[in-house]
Specification:
The complex is a heterodimer.
Chain A (H helix, E strand, L loop, with lengths): L3 E3 L3 E4 L5 E7 L5 E8 L3 E8 L6 E2 L6 E7 L2 E6 L8 E8 L8 E2 L3 E5 L1
Parallel strand pairs in A: 2-11
Antiparallel strand pairs in A: 1-3, 3-8, 4-5, 4-9, 5-6, 7-8, 9-10, 9-11
Chain B lengths: L3 E3 L4 E4 L4 E7 L6 E7 L6 E6 L3 E5 L2 E6 L4 E6 L8 E9 L3 E4 L3 E6 L1
Parallel strand pairs in B: 2-11
Antiparallel strand pairs in B: 1-3, 3-8, 4-5, 4-9, 6-7, 7-8, 9-10, 9-11
The chains are: A mainly beta, B mainly beta.
Chain lengths: 113, 110
């Protein structure tokens, strides 16, 4: 089974802080994704990466950056946290072969005060 | 118009009922279809993954795809309280770009 581990289940930070969310996968998947999930809006793609040191913007990249220094680890960075970034953040992975379903971690519920 | 439409519910049914969950989509380029189950405070878990029009069965779950109508369904037979969750439909096009529905909340009452 694919295992996608997100480092924190719950996180509370203050506005203006730099926030790091970590995701680690154990299946040697090439592609990794960061989403945020909000009620009524579903999952929205923030950034994705198809290889080490490679990244692509998703639909809502503003206010976020990412880092992928190793294949198994994909980090999401909130450069200066704001209250509208309070959300559930989900990491997902797939094999490099196209048209594969994504496998998710259990999410980080982030509150910005 | 959203690319994928899914009724948010909530849908409340008695234990043992047959549940029907549905999504419509507008883009005929969608070729691969999934259903995920998401329990409260957990990540989405893949339930069904299918390509062709028609039915795919896995235990109490049946996924149905009608590409001509741009309509997909998930049926749950003999529903159990443990099926209470949010169900997300999802569709892939262009390799790995995936579009998700907003999810339907299901409650199965004992």
């Amino acid at each position: 089974d694919v295992k996608v581990t997100q480092s924190s289940r719950y996180l509370v930070k203050r506005t203006g802080e730099k926030v790091f969310l970590e995701c680690v996968q154990d299946m040697d998947h090439e592609n990794m994704f960061w989403y945020r999930q909000d009620p009524g809006l579903g999952l929205r793609l923030i950034y994705f990466s198809y290889d080490v040191k490679m990244k692509e913007k998703g639909d809502i990249p503003e206010g976020y950056s990412v880092s992928r220094e190793k294949k198994e680890r994909f980090s999401l960075i909130l450069e200066s946290a704001s209250t509208n970034q309070t959300s559930m953040y989900l990491c997902a992975t797939t094999f490099d072969r196209g048209n594969q379903p994504q496998h998710f971690g259990d999410g980080t519920r982030l509150s910005i005060l | 118009q959203k690319e994928v439409e899914q009724d948010p519910g909530p849908l409340s049914v008695p234990e043992g009922a047959i549940v029907s969950l549905n999504c419509t989509y507008s883009n005929s380029a969608f070729q691969y279809f999934m259903w995920y189950r998401q329990y409260s405070r957990k990540g989405p878990e893949l339930l069904m993954y299918t390509y062709s029009s028609g039915n795919k069965e896995d235990g109490r779950f049946t996924a149905q795809v009608d590409k001509s109508s741009k309509y997909i369904s998930l049926f749950i037979r003999d529903s159990q309280p443990s099926d209470s969750a949010t169900y997300l439909c999802a569709m892939i096009f262009g390799g790995f770009k995936t579009i998700f529905g907003a999810g339907t909340r299901l409650f199965v009452k004992a």
